[in-house]
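Protein modeling request. Please complete all fields; requests missing the sequence field cannot be processed.
Requester role: graduate student
Desired output: 3D structure, C-alpha cell encoding
Chains: 1
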Amino acid sequence: MATASTLPSPPRSPRIPTPRSRPRRAWLRGTRELILRLKGGYLEPFVTLTVPTNLGTPGAANSRAVANAGPAISDVSHRPLLPPAGVPIRVFARVSDPDGIGSVTLRWRLEASGSFTNVAMHDDGLKRRHFPGDGVFTGSIPAKARAR
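Delivered output (148 residues):
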C-alpha cells in the first residue's frame, strides 16, 4: 500500500505566463464598469474603474487659468501657394483677442538663414482680401529672385 509520501508527483508543465492587458482608460460619466468582450464572445471579463474623489469644479477657473491669455490665431494661409521667383507672398491670418489687438507681426526667414525678418500685418482690407476690421490681418513677404 502506497502512502502519500511515496506517490509520484504529477508531471510539471512549463510555466506559461498569464496574459495581461493594460489599456489606458478614463471614466467620463455613467457606470464605472468596463466590459471587455473578446472575439467570439465566450469570455467577458469586467472591471470596476476607480473614480477620483475630486471630479473638478465645473464653471470655476482651473489650474491653467490666466488673467490675460494671448490672442487666438486661426485660418492662416498664403497666396500664391507655390510662388514663382519674383512674386511676393501675401500671408493672411484671422486674429482675435477679447482684450483687443494692438498690433500683429509676421516673422519669416529664408530656409538657409538663421535670422527672422519682421513684417507688420494690417486689418485694413487694402490688400485685395477681406474687409477692414473683419479680424483678418494681411502681411506681405517681399519677392525674391531665383537662385542661380
